[in-house]
């Protein structure tokens, strides 16, 4: 997911940092069925950037046959300077 993450320019200028935890539900083919912020970073801009990251990364890797379908995941998206 790191390569799909874009640090918001305004957040970088304000030196905002944080971790956003996303809760997402995906189907067997890795398509995102639902996504929401599970735990906010405290910055609306970083929270939105995390959701945008997930959208750019879709589809996610396929779910292995031995795992349930659909699958719910909690994904941390970290924004840090330096």
UniProtKB/TrEMBL annotation:
<comment type="similarity">
    <text>Belongs to the TonB family.</text>
</comment>
<keyword id="KW-0813">Transport</keyword>
<dbReference type="InterPro" id="IPR051045">
    <property type="entry name" value="TonB-dependent_transducer"/>
</dbReference>
<dbReference type="InterPro" id="IPR006260">
    <property type="entry name" value="TonB/TolA_C"/>
</dbReference>
<feature type="domain" description="TonB C-terminal">
    <location>
        <begin position="1"/>
        <end position="82"/>
    </location>
</feature>
<keyword id="KW-1003">Cell membrane</keyword>
<keyword id="KW-0997">Cell inner membrane</keyword>
<protein>
    <submittedName>
        <fullName>Energy transducer TonB</fullName>
    </submittedName>
</protein>
<keyword id="KW-1133">Transmembrane helix</keyword>
<dbReference type="InterPro" id="IPR037682">
    <property type="entry name" value="TonB_C"/>
</dbReference>
<dbReference type="Pfam" id="PF03544">
    <property type="entry name" value="TonB_C"/>
</dbReference>
<keyword id="KW-0653">Protein transport</keyword>
<keyword id="KW-0472">Membrane</keyword>
<keyword id="KW-0812">Transmembrane</keyword>
């Amino acid at each position: 997911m790191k390569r799909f993450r874009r640090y918001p320019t305004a957040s970088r200028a304000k030196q905002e940092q944080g971790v956003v935890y996303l809760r997402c539900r995906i189907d067997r083919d890795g398509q995102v069925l639902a996504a929401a912020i599970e735990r906010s970073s405290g910055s609306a801009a970083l929270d939105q950037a995390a959701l945008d990251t997930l959208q750019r990364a879709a589809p996610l890797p396929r779910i292995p046959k031995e795992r349930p379908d659909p699958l719910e995941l909690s994904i941390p998206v970290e924004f840090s300077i330096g």
